[in-house]
Amino acid sequence: MSAPDPGLQAQRTSLSWTRTAFAVLANGAVLMLHDISHHQTGYGLEATGVAVIIAMLVYLVGVRRQRTLAQHPLPVRVTPAFEVHVVTAAVLILIVVSVLSLRL
């Protein structure tokens, strides 16, 4: 059995962060389409702006993680504790903003 490719971990990490960023963007698109289909200019557009900012944050964290995991040898500390906490808080804020924009 051959040794695993050391580049696969960084590639999988990049793909998962990119998928997360696209999911956040899709949330923003749904909120924007909801406002457009109901002919209103409510909080959906603001929620879309929040989603775009969070998606950019998620993507940048993913790029940073990919660069960290692509280093040879790996750094001593590879866990992204701070970044994951920031993204988690941002997604929770997006959930609250999304719910509020759909209710109003």
Give the structural class.
mainly alpha
Number of strands: 0
Given the structure, what is the number of helices?
3
Order of helices and strands, N to C?
HHH
Low-confidence stretches: none
Helix content: over 70%
Summarize the main sheet: none
The overall number of domains is 1
Our estimate of the beta-strand percent is under 5%
| Distance from first to last alpha carbon | 58 Å
The 3D shape can be described as elongated
Give average pLDDT, whole number: 82
The radius of gyration computed from the alpha-carbon positions, rounded to a whole number of angstroms, is 17 Å
Description:
- By secondary structure, the protein is mostly helical.
- The protein has one domain (7-103).
- Helix content is 77%, strand content 0%.
- It contains 3 helices and no strands.
- The chain has helices at residues 7-37, 44-69, 81-103.
- The longest helix is centred in the first third of the chain and has 31 residues, at 7-37.
